[in-house]
Amino acid sequence: MALAAPESAGAVPASPASPASPAQQRGGWDLKDSGTDARFRGLAAVSRKTAWAAGTKGTVLRTSDGGGSWRNVSPPGAGQLEFRDIEAFDGRRAVVLAIGEGEASRVLRTSDGGATWTESFRNTEPKAFYDCMTFFDRRHGLAMSDPVDGKFRILSTADGGRSWKVLPDKGMPAAQEGEAGFAASGQCLVSSGPRDVWLATGGAARARVLHSADRGRTWRATDARIPAGDPARGVFGLAFRDRTHGIAVGGDYRADQPSPKAAATTGDGGRTWTTAKQPPPAYRSGVAWLPGSRRGALAVGPTGTDVTADGGRTWRTVDAGSYDTVDCTRDRACWAAGEKGRIARWERD
Fold first, then answer.
1. How many CB atoms lie within 10 A of CB 91?
2. Dihedral sign from CA coordinates of 234, 198, 144, 40
3. pLDDT digits (tens, 9 = 90+) for 103-149
4. Residues 6+ apart with CB under 8 A from 97
5. pLDDT of residue 27
6. Which residues pair with 263 in a beta bridge?
7. How far is Cα 17 from Cα 319, in angstroms, rounded to an integer?
8. Of residues 106, 105, 98, 142, the one with CA closest to residue 127
9. Over the range 98-110, which residues count as b (16 or more CB within 10 Å of their CB) and which as e?
10. Mean predicted lDDT score pLDDT of the chain
11. Whole-number Å distance between alpha carbons of 35 and 56
12. pLDDT beyond 50 at 299
């Protein structure tokens, strides 16, 4: 079973936009009215105008006017599904992942803005529990499951999510006892470029990041330098701005437990990781590089948002609002989403 944080973990009251300003992008979160109380852990930011969010109760929303209005495009009959990841190619084409044991793990796809959906994968392996997915381009993508028979399971598509197949596990390292992924932000599996992909883990003696340079065929595991040793601890989110520079965030999702080393960085594609000199003060589940910046990034969690201006070595809190995931776009927009229908876009001063 995936190590997904409970829906009530770390909840805090809503907070207005930040009074502080991150480097190169001064401003704060502008909370949008989503019209729902669903918790959104899946987020796909397409542009400053267009974004998708996916969450509890089978909810999928889409905006095409910068969050001024949201269209409920939830798949019919999906009310019992828990959507934890969504990947969108534009305002019409998106792929959404539902998590859970056995057949609860599913992938659905739309090519008409959510007017209709097609189920393209339903898990039939009782031991599998899918957590996250990522796409290299509009055709090639992967989804990951918690270990099955001692190894993480990787699902692959070469046609934009229309069909999927399980990859051979010969090149996958053995999982540690209790090791799994966190279906907390859609960022436990991320990619950069045409072939590189990274998988984040927790729950075992050591938190690890696994890297593949061949679209999931073979993997190499490295300790992530973020505390683990408990089912609630590990790496929850990853972000890579290219195939070498990455940030990992996580900690302990329990609100009453400290997370003293909640972030780490790599400059060699994940071969080695260095704990942040000044990490975020608490558990963080999502992270994204600021568009147009080589050193700026945002990290979010149930107790706030932090910013770094030095590539993840030091962080400072700029907002106290609750968010689970964050995503930024090429046209220099950042979006965040979380509990109680919270969706926001970063607005410049």
1. 17
2. positive
3. 999 999 999 999 999 999 999 999 999 999 999 999 999 999 999 99
4. 42, 54, 83, 84, 85, 86, 105, 106, 107, 130, 132, 133, 143, 186
5. 74
6. 249
7. 7
8. 105
9. bbbbeeebbbbbb
10. 93
11. 14
12. yes
Contact 129, 175 (CB under 8 A): no
Q: Residue 304 and residue 295: Cα distance in Å, rounded? A: 20
* Structure token digits, residue 171: 């090149």
Q: How far, in Å, CA of 234 to CA of 254, rounded? A: 12
> For tokens 């290219």, what's the residue?
242
Using the predicted structure, report yes or no on whether residue 327 has a pLDDT greater than 80: yes
Cβ-contact 65, 49 below 8 angstroms: yes
d(C-alpha 312, C-alpha 56), whole Å = 31
> Strands 246-252, 233-240: parallel, antiparallel or unpaired by DSSP?
antiparallel
Count the helices and strands in the chain (H runs, E runs): 0, 28
Please state the φ and ψ torsions of residue 104, each to the nearest 5 degrees.
Answer: -70, -25
What is the distance between the alpha carbons of residues 308 and 139, in angstroms, rounded to a whole number? 33
Closest CA to 133 of 160, 168, 101: 160
For 232-268, the pLDDT digits (tens) are 999 999 999 999 999 999 999 999 999 999 999 999 9
What are the tens digits of pLDDT across the range 166-216? 999 999 999 999 999 999 999 999 999 999 999 999 999 999 999 999 999
Q: Is the pLDDT of residue 349 over 80?
A: no
Tokens, residue 265? 């960085």
What does the radius of gyration of the chain's CA atoms come to, in whole angstroms? 18
Place of tokens 């793990």: 105
- Torsion region of 100: left, alpha or beta (phi above 0 gives left; psi -120 to 50 gives alpha): left
- pLDDT of 20 above 50: no
Question: In b/e form, how buried is each residue of 307-321, taking b as 16+ CB within 10 angstroms?
Answer: bbbebbbebebbbeb
Q: Who contacts 8 (Cβ-Cβ below 8 Å, separation ≥6)?
A: none
Task: Find the angle CA(40)-CA(88)-CA(197) to the nearest 5 degrees.
Answer: 90
- pLDDT average, residue stretch 305-315: 97
Sign of the four-CA dihedral 130, 298, 211, 88 = positive
